[in-house]
Amino acid sequence: MRDPYLYPDTEVLKNLLGIRDSKKLQEAEGDYVTFRLSEIAEDDRMTGVFDFSALCRMHYRIFQDIYEWAGKPRIMNIEKIETVLNGISIEYSDVFDIKRDAEAVLKDMNHYGWEKASFDETVRNFSDCMAKLWKAHPFREGNTRTIVTFCAMFIEERGIYIDSELFKDNAEYMRDALVAASAVFSDLGDRRKPEYLYRIVEDALERGKELEEDAARRIMEAGYLAGKEQIRKVIFRERWQCRKYSAGEIRQLLKHKEKEEPERERQEREFKHT
After folding, report:
1. CA neighbor of 179 nearest in space, from 94, 55, 81
2. Beta bridge mates, 184
3. Mean pLDDT, to the nearest integer, of 249-272?
4. Using an 8 Å Cβ cutoff, are 214 and 234 in contact?
């Protein structure tokens, strides 16, 4: 079957820029994607709904400048030769099963008790969910960047911080780790080696914990209570600007947040003493 995503007689994806050279397309894609990811980094939260539609919207946000089909599930089955699998491909979801397979993973993610999980449980379950979602491979191109970004935003929406820059800085390792964690075959059986993915996810979550603790300490030094919303606000603003705020800047950022407890909590406390 001819690949409808490619220019005829080439291995170049059809694109909105009209580029027909693979190397030039890769360079242009990198520039546009970097810009869109920096835009996404400005958001201090997503919609709060992490379903298949949200995943498609994420893909659109990242690749809207490059591909007409950005945000749309692929319409054909695909294979990709993987060096770490000695030249064979992952068995991605069949084109007719993409939505079903992805939604099954997203349902598990949304119903899992992340807030009560231990650190080790979080590492394993988050890694496993990310690998299963990646194995569905919903899009013709851009799955790794979309799914890693989507999953990082998902876990931070649960109040668990993660250093997703570690994934970007080690993009080749991250993709190979996802391949190794997804190696289940109809003929060869279960060949998964998830330990590589666990390793980088554990490091990213450890850094996320350090980030949260550091933000909380500096917020308190600035004279504010380090509640969840205050920590989130500081972390996301500093992440966007790629620098740490001074105590004065933190006070300015949080100036609309009252230092005292909310009025309802104060009244409840006074009631207990009457």
Report:
1. 81
2. 190
3. 60
4. no
What pLDDT is stored for residue 257 in this prediction? 53
What does the alpha-carbon distance between residue 2 and residue 9 come to, in Å, rounded to a whole number? 10
Average the pLDDT over 37-53 and give the result.
79
Question: Can you state the angle between helices 52-63 and 98-111, rounded to 10 degrees?
Answer: 110
Can you read off the two tokens belonging to residue 237? 């603003």
Are the beta carbons of 135 and 179 closer than 8 angstroms?
no
Structure tokens at 134: 């990646």
**Burial class for 64, CB neighbours closer than 10 Å (0-12, 13-18, 19+):** middle
Q: Residue 231 is which amino acid?
A: I
Nearest by Cα to 161 from 110, 116, 111, 201: 201
Domains of the chain: 22-208 (1.10.3290.10)
pLDDT(240) > 90: no
pLDDT band of residue 165 (cuts 50, 70, 90) is: very high
Tokens matching residue 216: 């909380």
| Helix/strand/coil (H/E/C) assignment for every residue in the chain | CCCCCECCCCCCECCCCCCCCHHHHHHHHHHHHHHHHHHHHCCCCCCCCCCHHHHHHHHHHHHCCCCCCCCCCCCCCCCCCEHHHCCECCCCCCCCCHHHHHHHHHHHHHHCCHHHCCHHHHHHHHHHHHHHHHHHCCCCCCHHHHHHHHHHHHHHHCCCCCCCHHHHHCHHHHHHHHHHHCCEECCCEECCCCHHHHHHHHHHHHHHHHHHHHHHHHHHHCCCCCCHHHHHHHHHHHHHHCCCCCHHHHHHHCCCCCCCCCHHHHHHHHHHCC
* Contact (CB, 8 A) for 167 and 200: yes
